[in-house]
Amino acid sequence: MFSGWFQRSKSKKSVNRSKPTRKSSVSPKWDPQVTLRRLMQVGVVAAGVGLVAGWTWGERWLLSYAREHQAVVLTAENVQLVDEPGWMSPLVEAQLREAVAEQLGTDPLDRFALLKALAVLHSQAWVETATCVERQGRNVLVWATYRRPLALVEWKGSYYLTASTGHRLPGVYTAEQAPRVGLPILEKVSAAPPNEGEMWPGEDVRAGLDLAAFLEGQPFTSQVRAIAVHDERGAVRPVLLTRNPGGRVYWGRPLGQESPVEVDGQVKLKKLLAVFAQRGSIDAGGKRVHVYGEGISMEAGDDAASQTAEQSEAPTSAETRQAVVRHVAYSW
Q1: Most buried among 54, 155, 202, 207, using CB within 10 Å?
Q2: Residue 154 belongs to what domain range?
Q3: Alpha-carbon distance 162 to 330, whole Å?
């Protein structure tokens, strides 16, 4: 009995031990879908490698072709100032165009040359902001904003061209040349002139420039010989020095800085226009006129020797009434 059970149990173990042997002898089944996917992956990688290699070779070929077949020597004539302001003189325009052209080589794809040209523009005293230099075939386009000349600032007998922004511009004139430039003259400034392209220091220059811009285009401006940025007491209170001996107009505090008992700039201007219409001159024929109070006060002027020489250049009364300041006739 026991021997039969033992024999049967042993035979079952032998059967169970033989089953794994039969399973391991079976070969794995081939799946064509898996093979296809793997072939596609290999193809994509190969195509990518070929594309990169082809692009690298093609880029080098295009650069070489552009340098050999499209090289152009650019001059100032190829440079165009986009939206060039009407006040800019031909000489200033030529200087800016030449400054850009000097930075450009014959390679039409050299972007570093364009960056150099942009940096040079930034360094020009005439340029306020330079935003873009772009090459289009044989032309170079420049986008920038510029500093407009507004006045001449006098310092020790020399007259320095100055922009409306307060920056000193290229151009220094003598006392004989200054009246022919056609711009307002600021006198009695407290600080020495800065380098070209730098801002004039001092609030007095700013006050004089603001007043010159405010009066620009008025019919009486040809009667103004200069604007003194300080009064006799040394305060920053601009005074209009007229061409009549001893004549002057006391403006008061700078624009926007009026005291509580002082009228604003628009009221002062109306007073000047009223005196001009009634008397033919803003100084009422060589008087000292005060326009900063509630009314208009006048007192006898002094015969300043420095103004006597200017009297011969003063326009006639009829010419004065129709005079309009023009700021485009520069002498450079």
Answers
A1: 207
A2: 149-321
A3: 13
